[in-house]
Amino acid sequence: MKGKEIEPSLWLDRLRETEFWKTSKKVTFFLYAIFGVAFYLLLIGNVLPMQYELKEGSISPNTITAPATIIDEAATQKAKERAAQGVPPVFTKDDKVTNDQIGQIDHFFSEVRSILSEKSLNETEKKNRMKEIVGGKEEKLSEEFFGKLVRTPVDDLTEIRVGTREIVAEIMGDGVKEAELAEKTRIVEQKFATLSPHSRDLVQKLAKFYIIPNEFPDAPKTKALQEAAMNNADLVKIEQGQNIVTKGEKITADQYEKLKKFKILSSTNLWGSYIGLALLLVVVLIFFYLFIGRFHPSVAHDNFKIIMLFLVLTICMTGMKLIAIGQNLDEWSILGYLSPAALGGMLVTLLLNVELGFLCIVYLSIVTSMFFSGEGHQLFDFRFGLVALMGGVVSAFSLSGVKRRSSVLYAGIFGSIASVVTIMALFFIFPAEGWSTIWRSLTLGLVGSIFCSILTIGFLPGFESLFGILSPLRLLELSNPNHPLLKKLLYDAPGTYHHSVIVGNLAESGAEAIGANGLLARVGAYYHDLGKTKRPQFFIENQIGKENPHDKISPNLSKTIIISHTRDGVEMLKQYRIPEPIQDIAAQHHGTTLIKYFYFKALEATDGMNVIEEDYRYPGPKPQFKEAAIVGIADCVEAAVRSVAKPTPSRIEGVIKKIIQQRLEDGQFDECDLTIKELDLITQAMCATLQGIFHNRIEYPEGPTLTGKGAKQH
């Protein structure tokens, strides 16, 4: 049981005791930066797409699929152009043209009537005059037409005019396009079966002459419809997982462009991906910094706890990186269900607290989605992240308030059950291809959290020792009576050992009454008087049947010996690398209280000359946290109640209240956050505990002494 046998390198302890390294904001930012770079390097390979050395026209050595769904812009543009081309031009009918043609017909017949009524004109002159009416378009009307018109009786002109008007108005009223003109004029030949052959021929020729296009292309409306058709055209997508190029296929220009878009070619610039991941990690680290600073200032102001937190995350991410290597195998594309995210949640919960454990689980779940996104050809595969989140949260929650090391394994089992249920739910929502995939996934989910719990049990002692963290499991180990220091206390100072056990019970009950850490208070009480093992005979609880050595020395020397037990205890605890909270309880449980017995003895011996009260006070510091103050109260209460002649409940309560009142008036609680209400609860809890220890016992009467065979041996 030599110190050197258990003492590792003390460099971290010395560094931890340096206030600059422990609390400096510069060191904090440096740590965030260092671990941010580590996280970046671990993630970058999984964020960047796999690249190939390919050229247009070369033969592809692999089948390359689309890593994500994107829009094929070239194909989409062609589809839009086809949609626009499929829109027929829009025509607008101009009724003014129709009215103008009807007016020209009326004018024509008015002039013809006038020409035919002039007796002085011969037939040739009349034809020439009629040709002038049509304004140079007489070539469209045959010579035969004008010959028939000249010989037409004036009385028949009205019938011919009306017929011409009707057919022109009817046909042009329906609209006539340039391309439809020939077809529309043929309709004229099917009309006017009731007219005489002479009149019908004139009507048909005139109608064909006066029917002209009155529907014209409307460019703005046509363009608007084409734009609408282009906007409504379906986008052509390259679907995620779709083959871009097949193995052994010659790469075309179109395929080469698609490979460039997906940044699959080795010549492609990936600065965007580098910057994107850096920004993502900056946001995450800022959130960590703000969350920890706001809700857990004790961690935020301790750089060694920050190192431990980020180291846990780095270990988990490294494990994911190693597991993700096997995911490239087709039959093991579901290895993401084996993600060690739960390891981070359980370790942080045990080493720090459950809230930070949940925070780490959320982060590691996101990272899991990134590490194991290979099968989904995307940045995040939510399946693995969701399973990691559920399994990790359940595992971490199961460890809240843990008091047995076996509970870590149970937490892993609970987390595995949560993972399996989540995987089953995912397969119900998204059916898998084949039962073999389902069974392999369920097996990995079942094994994942259990394996994390085993790793937690393995890593935990190392973190506790390296960073001096006092986890619940570490406290349980320290409370083991077989611990070397407790055995030393038992052998060297048995009275102090018994006193410490009772103080532990009192302190635990008092701490639990106000919601403090009862386990820490109890274990701290076990070690609070360890320094008395250096000179056990100078402390009254170890002087059973022995002479008191203080009777032979001066009060000043006695005071020095008594005070030194706190310093000696801290030194021994440091030598055995007992975590700082236990050391603090040993140093603070007396605070700066006055050693009244030797102070008054010194006053009596010197008539008050040259006796300074401060010299007879413990050096402190005063209790800095509730558990240290409670151990100090319990320490004083146990000694005081032991000296009470008949410790009735009312007397016990009176003693406790008196001790607490004296310490309160002496300012011993000024630097911890104990309230008056909490002190009352502590009093009640300690009273109940002491009543169980000092309960009334029955005095058995002495009976007649039996002799012979019937006598019992007691």
From TrEMBL:
The keyword Transmembrane helix applies. The keyword Transmembrane applies. Keywords: Membrane, Transmembrane, Transmembrane helix. InterPro entries: HD/PDEase_dom, HD_domain, HDIG_dom, Metal-dep_PHydrolase_7TM_extra, Metal-dep_PHydrolase_7TM_intra, PgpH_phosphodiesterase. SUPFAM superfamilies: HD-domain/PDEase-like. It comes from the Bacteria. Residues 492-649 form the HD/PDEase domain. Gene3D superfamilies: Hypothetical protein af1432 (1.10.3210.10). The chain crosses the membrane at residues 29-48, 270-292, 304-325, 356-372, 384-402, 408-430, 442-463. This is Nucleotidyltransferase with HDIG domain. It comes from Croceifilum oryzae. The lineage of its organism: Bacteria, Bacillati, Bacillota, Bacilli, Bacillales.
